[in-house]
Amino acid sequence: MNAFITPPPSCPVITPERRRNARTSAAALAVIRAFEMFGLSILIHRTALVGLSFVTLVALGCSKPPALSPEGANAGPTNDLVDRPLPNPTSEIILNWAKLPDGRVWGSTAGIDIGPDGHVWAYDRCGGVALAGGCEENPDRDPVFKFDRHTGDILMSFGAGLFVLPHGLHVDDEGNVWVTDSQGNDSGTKGHQVIKFSPEGEILLRLGVAGQPGSEPGLLNEPCDVITAKNGDIFVSDGHSGQGEDPPLGSTGRILKFDRDGEFIKGWGEIGFRPGQFRTPHALEFDSQGRLYVADRGNHRIQIFDQEGNFLETYIQYSRVSGLFITADDTLYAIDSESSPTRHPGWKTGVRIGKSSEDRPVGFIPPHANEMQVFNGVAGEGVAVDSDGNVYVAEGPSSRATAGGGITKYLAVGN
């Protein structure tokens, strides 16, 4: 039985004054989107962007606008634009922190996590530098690696010959490693799956049918990320191509829920802008309460749900989010790899940091400087944080060349 549900929206009270502001801002937003569609760069004055904040709430989730505190008022505008100063909790950058075997050059990556023993897991797309099938072309190369968090030395590797394009990576509380394969090969024998490995690389479970994309229960279509709940339930975000202006036929934007044995339970979502709809649900994370955070990248927001798919809240101050990580004390790290004058005007890439209970970043790790992206910089797609507060970034197609390697380590102040 198809158990898809549509969560109800949660909107603020619309006063006459807000309605007038929304009409004005909506017209401005329409102009911006028209420019974006034609690929033209535009610069928007900070005050104009502040004026867009209400229509953003209406169009991208009807979330309750955050209340201004004296601290927030002193810090700057409430939409956390690029001119708002936020402290950087790191003190040193280590580029190309983890080396691959035999002098192999890193391709792109997006998946990174911390295992229960504190060490770092990540994948390399087998030398593929963009969203290409590097692992299909290099089936003898292991894509999945475990690195010593102190030295960057390789502790484990596996997965050769199993993937087309690794995309999401999650390590559960038992140390099992889950990886999504977001593309299929031409022969229809690999891809569009989630594979669960033991810590030693033994295949324990597969979700989806290899090489067969689809939207019905039992099939996956460009799965982006995977995560497991405390009770073992499995959540998959599905639909990588949904963020474009004209998504390919059959594209999805949804969250799928399975039991610990891989039996389908339910799903929710479709491509769109409303609460419970998605335009590329790129990453997943849980907070300590078990609330599910979804990086709804194409809609420039984070959506939050309970584990039954009921919509709870929308965050818009973390920008165009590609990756999420929430620490044991509920500190949220959200990395933006895609903001640009055309994709998300007025915002820098980088890592925004705040309490997971609030839509209010209080820290920021700036992006790598890049002469082609002077205003926005370039940043990775995945983020993870160890128990000492050190931050690890998985460098994706936009940032890998600038970063010089697949993982950048940012040392926490005092380490």
Description:
By secondary structure, the chain is α+β, with helices and mostly antiparallel strands. It has one domain: Neuraminidase, CATH 2.120.10.30. It is 12% helix and 28% strand. It contains six helices and 24 strands. The chain has helices at residues 16-37, 46-51, 53-59, 70-75, 134-137, 400-403, and strands spanning 90-94, 112-114, 120-123, 144-147, 154-158, 166-171, 177-181, 193-197, 203-207, 223-228, 234-238, 254-258, 264-268, 281-286, 292-296, 301-305, 311-315, 323-326, 331-336, 350-355, 363-365, 382-385, 391-394, 407-412. The protein has a four-stranded antiparallel beta sheet, with no helix packed on it. A four-stranded antiparallel beta sheet has the order 2-3-4-5, with no helix packed on it. Strand 15 (292-296) and strand 16 (301-305) form a beta hairpin. Helix 1 packs across helix 3. The chain starts with 15 loop residues before the first helix and ends with a strand.
What is the fold's blueprint, element by element?
Layout: H1 16-37, H2 46-51, H3 53-59, H4 70-75, E1 90-94, E2 112-114, E3 120-123, H5 134-137, E4 144-147, E5 154-158, E6 166-171, E7 177-181, E8 193-197, E9 203-207, E10 223-228, E11 234-238, E12 254-258, E13 264-268, E14 281-286, E15 292-296, E16 301-305, E17 311-315, E18 323-326, E19 331-336, E20 350-355, E21 363-365, E22 382-385, E23 391-394, H6 400-403, E24 407-412
